[in-house]
Each structure stands twice: as structure tokens, then as C-alpha cells.
């Protein structure tokens, strides 16, 4: 990437997020403050709408007091969120999937041909991002036929590891060799057009909105 090609990212990949609180009061306070700020209102505004004092709300937001269920119900109505939302930061686990080399789950996918091997490298359901991500290691051998053309919802990222293929996206063709990558809108027709050097291996990482079906490419 040249200096001219650099873009300002909307999210810092090296940002450090404060850890999930182990203290229940701190977790509740964090969520109350977060929801209040999302609404763009001040502590005084929230105090006026709930009938609570500014001092009490400040103590709740800083985790210095344990609010009653009645207080949490009042806050949930004022902020427009369910009571359970205040406990999310305290209770919600963060999942991870670790796959040893060669131990990915082999998948039989739509359009699979002889010599096409899909290995799913990880899968996390009901994550906090609202986005589903499916990372595949795709291997094409000398017995492979050319893929059918895929077209599905979401975004897809390819990274070539071994071999060489000519990959189609829409009307464009890309000659992909080890180290090359391709990132694209998967709603356009796409798939390998020509298998140049085999065996070929590449990573295919597909992302799409949670609770909607994805598809391999």
C-alpha cells in the first residue's frame, strides 16, 4: 500500500478497551452511563426524567452504590432498555476458537467438487459484534474442477497461500499468487475462473450480518 493509498480507519485496531468489570456495581454503572451518553443526555436530564437526585445517579454510574430493582426499573424505562441490559457487561462471556494446524472441521459445502476441500477454522455464534464471520482454508488439488460462480450476502476476503488461480469478481479477473489478497462485496458473482498452478490453497473469510445465512466462496 502506497502512502497515497492509505485511508483513515474508523476503528483503531490497536485500541485498548477497559476490561469487563468483575464488580457488579461497576458493571451496572458502566452500562447506565453508556446508555445515557448514547441518548445524548446529561446526568441532570436523567435525574429530571426519573425523579432521582443527581448525586444518586452519579454514585450509580461510578459504581459506588448498589441500586435496587425498583431503581433499575426506573432507569430502564427512562433509558429505553430492558433491565437485563444493565448486567450485560458483568455476565456476558467472550468466546474464542483455537484450531491446531490440520484440525479444521472439514465441510461439505454447496457446489463442492472432487478435489475441493473446505476446512472451517472457527465459528462463534451469538457474539457481541452483530456480525458473523466464517474463516475457511480452501484447498484445490489437481483433481479439482473449476468452481461454480458464487453470489451471496456479505463481504469476503481472500488471501492466497499456495499455487496460483485466476479469480473472478463480477467482470474483473485477478491473477492471485502467494501473498496476494482480494477483498470484495460478495453480492457480485465470484469464484475461481482458472486453476493455473496446483495444488492451490487460500484463506476465505466471509462476514455477514448475524442471524442471516452466509455462503462459501
Can you characterise this structure?
- With 217 residues, the chain is α+β, with helices and mostly antiparallel strands.
- It folds into two domains: 24-86, Orthogonal Bundle (434 Repressor (Amino-terminal Domain)); 105-209, Jelly Rolls.
- 22% of the residues lie in helices and 29% in strands.
- The chain has helices spanning 24-39, 43-50, 54-61, 69-79, 88-91, and strands spanning 105-107, 116-120, 131-140, 155-169, 172-176, 181-185, 190-209.
- It starts with 23 loop residues before the first helix and ends in an 8-residue tail after the last strand.
Brief write-up:
By secondary structure, the chain is α+β, with helices and mostly antiparallel strands. The chain has 5 helices and 7 strands; from the N terminus they run αααααβββββββ.
Structural class: alpha+beta
Taken from the alpha-carbon principal axes, the silhouette is elongated
CATH architecture of the largest domain: Sandwich
Number of domain modules: 2
Distance between the termini: 25 Å
Radius of gyration: 24 Å
CATH level-4 homologous superfamily of the largest domain: Jelly Rolls
CATH top level of the largest domain is: Mainly Beta
Helical run tally: 5
- Mean pLDDT across the residues is 81
Strand content: 25-35%
Low-confidence stretches: none
Largest sheet composition: 7 strands, antiparallel
- Helix and strand sequence: HHHHHEEEEEEE
The third-level CATH topology of the largest domain is Jelly Rolls
Specify the helix fraction band: 10-25%
Amino acid at each position: 500500500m502506497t502512502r497515497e493509498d492509505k485511508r483513515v480507519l474508523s476503528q483503531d485496531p490497536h485500541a485498548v478497551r477497559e476490561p469487563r468489570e468483575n464488580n457488579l456495581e461497576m458493571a451496572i454503572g458502566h452500562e447506565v452511563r453508556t446508555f445515557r451518553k448514547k441518548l445524548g443526555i446529561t446526568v441532570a436530564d436523567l435525574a429530571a426524567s426519573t425523579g432521582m437526585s443527581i448525586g444518586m445517579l452519579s454514585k450509580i454510574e461510578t459504581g459506588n452504590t448498589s441500586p435496587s430493582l425498583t431503581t433499575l426499573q426506573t432507569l430502564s424505562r427512562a433509558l429505553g432498555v430492558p433491565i437485563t441490559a444493565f448486567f450485560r457487561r458483568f455476565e456476558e462471556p467472550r468466546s474464542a476458537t483455537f484450531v491446531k494446524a490440520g484440525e479444521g472441521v472439514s465441510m461439505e459445502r454447496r457446489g463442492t467438487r472432487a478435489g475441493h476441500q473446505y476446512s472451517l477454522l472457527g465459528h462463534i455464534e451469538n457474539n457481541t459484534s452483530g456480525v458473523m464471520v466464517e474463516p475457511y482454508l480452501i484447498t484445490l488439488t489437481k483433481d479439482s474442477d473449476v468452481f461454480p460462480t458464487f453470489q451471496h450476502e456479505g463481504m469476503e476476503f481472500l488471501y492466497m497461500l499456495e499455487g496460483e488461480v485466476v479469480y473472478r469478481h463480477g467482470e474483473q479477473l485477478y491473477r492471485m499468487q502467494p501473498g496476494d489478497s482480494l477483498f470484495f462485496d460478495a453480492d457480485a458473482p465470484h469464484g475461481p475462473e482458472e486453476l493455473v498452478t496446483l495444488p492451490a490453497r487460500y484463506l476465505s473469510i466471509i462476514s455477514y450480518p448475524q442471524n442471516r445465512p452466509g455462503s462459501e466462496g
